[in-house]
Write a structure and sequence with these properties.
The radius of gyration is 18 Å and the shape is globular. The strands form three sheets. An eight-stranded parallel beta barrel has the order 1-2-3-5-8-9-10-13, surrounded by eight helices. A two-stranded antiparallel ribbon has the order 6-7. Strands 11-12 form a two-stranded parallel ribbon. It is 41% helix and 21% strand. The chain has one domain: Luciferase-like domain (TIM Barrel). It is of the alpha/beta class.
Length: 297
């Protein structure tokens, strides 16, 4: 199993804070530092700075060496797929072939209202996701590329730059444990399907819907410290910064490194290939080496 971080930059992180988390993950041997993409705060009730993920990714490509970079995930409601394909391919170049692209149907209706993005019904957003996956992978692999769909039309597109990674950068589809259509789309177009806050039983059921070419991964929160007192303090601080719906700690990785290792082993045993830990503050940066050590133990 591999470990990655999902850096929640929308929770007020400046670039320096984001770089510190990415470097801590890189130095601890994490596989990827992917950035959440929101235009407003998603977790805490108060409003905080929410910077543009793709600008930060370009800077991280310069300031890191090994760790993989991308989004977890980019909502399909934010932009045309040709723009997203161009952003990810350009990131692949400036990072020396370290780009990954996470795509999702979008869920935070309030940010769409605030910024004027349409927010169709859930089924329609999944339709958009399916067509965007077709367009993006087509642009990366066919020359010229033509597409005549319900939402997007492209004519004789000679896409540049061609991605460094061939046939293209890894694509990640984000979903929920109960989704049934999204894992089918992931199995068709993506190399990875990530689900949020699942139980091991959820993972086992979802893994059965994927084929060998599409790995299952998990997005979760973590509170890991050397002592039980440290765990309690970190847990109280982290829970206070989250919406009530996200505070189900039974689905988090919580405890000392030994307890964290057992939780990670349970996820690996049901087919999980990579675990993304949501991070956004200084105690999270200090926690990353502990989790890396737990996985290696």
């Amino acid at each position: 199993m591999k470990l990655g971080v999902s850096i929640e930059i929308q929770e007020g992180l400046g670039y320096g804070d984001t770089l510190a988390l990415a470097l801590a993950a890189e130095e601890s041997g994490y596989d990827a530092a992917l950035l959440a993409e929101h235009y407003t705060t998603s977790a805490a009730p108060e409003q905080r700075m929410a910077a543009d993920a793709w600008i930060y990714l370009a800077a991280l490509a310069r300031d890191t060496e090994r760790i993989r970079l991308g989004t977890l995930v980019s909502p399909v409601t934010f932009r045309h797929p040709s723009v997203l394909a161009k952003l990810a391919a350009s990131l692949d170049h400036v990072s020396g072939g370290r780009a990954e692209l996470g795509l999702g149907a979008g869920w935070l209706e309030s940010e769409h209202d605030a910024y004027g993005f349409p927010f169709p019904a859930a089924g329609r957003r999944v339709d958009l996701l399916e067509e965007q996956l077709e367009v993006i992978t087509g642009l990366w692999t066919k020359d010229p590329f033509n597409h005549d769909g319900s939402q997007y039309r492209l004519r004789d597109c000679n896409f540049t730059p061609r991605p460094v990674q061939q046939p293209h950068p890894p694509v990640i589809v984000g979903g929920r444990p109960a989704s049934r259509r999204l894992p089918r789309l992931a199995a068709r177009y993506a190399q990875e399907y990530v689900i949020a806050l699942p139980t091991p039983a959820d993972c086992e059921q979802v893994a059965a819907l994927l084929d060998d070419g599409c790995a299952l991964s998990v997005f979760t929160y973590a509170c890991v410290a050397e002592s039980e007192d440290g765990v309690r303090r970190l847990l109280e601080q982290t829970k206070a910064e989250l919406r009530p719906a996200m505070r189900n700690v039974d689905r988090w990785i919580v405890g000392t490194p030994d307890a964290a290792r057992r939780r990670l082993e349970a996820l690996a045993s049901v087919g999980v290939r990579r675990v993304f830990l949501a991070v956004w503050h200084e105690p999270h940066r200090e926690m990353l080496p502990l989790l890396a050590t737990a996985l290696d133990a």
